[in-house]
Amino acid sequence: DAGITQSPRHKVTETGTPVTLRCHQTENHRYMYWYRQDPGHGLRLIHYSYGVKDTDKGEVSDGYSVSRSKTEDFLLTLESATSSQTSVYFCAISDRGGWGNEQFFGPGTRLTVL
Amino acid sequence: DAKTTQPPSMDCAEGRAANLPCNHSTISGNEYVYWYRQIHSQGPQYIIHGLKNNETNEMASLIITEDRKSSTLILPHATLRDTAVYYCIVRVAEDSNYKLTFGKGTLLTVNP
Fold it and tell me: How would you write the pLDDT of chain B (112 residues) with one tens digit per residue?
């Protein structure tokens, strides 16, 4: 399995609080992605990165920001969490760009916003 | 709107071949068909991808019709551990921001 870890694996927080999720890889892959998964919606791309300090928005980026200061780490921040952001968040990595290219997924973070 | 269509669920007997269909009638000529699966509570797992030729790897085979409007993922000898949701994915050419196109997925249940 690709070396991808996510932390925390589970988190419960309150509306209005900031939350940061971390994705860490040991594969030295250039591309990293954050997705959320909700019932009835499948996986939806939030943000992605195509290199250190190079990021762009996905289809559901409102309310989220990301940062990538090192190849191995991709952070997802919810500046002020809302109940609609309750979801399972997956990080993925790829050594080639484009969603359709082979991506390796992390184990996921289950976030509950009360 | 979703650009792929998959049956919501399928059953298969253990040891038999599982054939999962996907329709992608609007696929463009340079777009690939990818298959992923997701076992309950885990991250999605890449299975296979193809452009127009049939492909085979250690996990599965992918058969793409000549007009490329549909494809079939074949698990030759299904096991209980193959029970998962299988997603057929096509990258839409007009989306320059890596927007994904997802089928709803097929829940494959392998029965003993």
Answer: 348 899 999 999 999 999 999 999 988 887 888 899 999 888 888 899 888 889 999 999 999 999 999 999 999 999 999 999 999 988 753 444 455 555 578 999 999 9
> In 3-state terms, what secondary structure has residue B110?
strand
Distance between A98 CA and the closest CA of chain B, angstroms: 6
Residues 6 or more apart whose CB falls under 8 angstroms from that of A39 comprise: none
Q: What is the DSSP string of A18-43?
A: -EEEEEEESS--SEEEEEEEETTTEE
Q: Is A28 exposed, middle or buried (0-12, 13-18, 19+ CB in 10 A)?
A: exposed
CB contact under 8 A, A100 and B91: yes
CB spacing of A42 vs B43 below 8 angstroms: no
The C-alpha angle B2, B8, B13, rounded to 5 degrees, equals 140
Q: Which of A67, A50, A35 is nearest to B99 (CA)?
A: A35
- Check whether the bond before B44 is cis (ω within 30° of 0): no
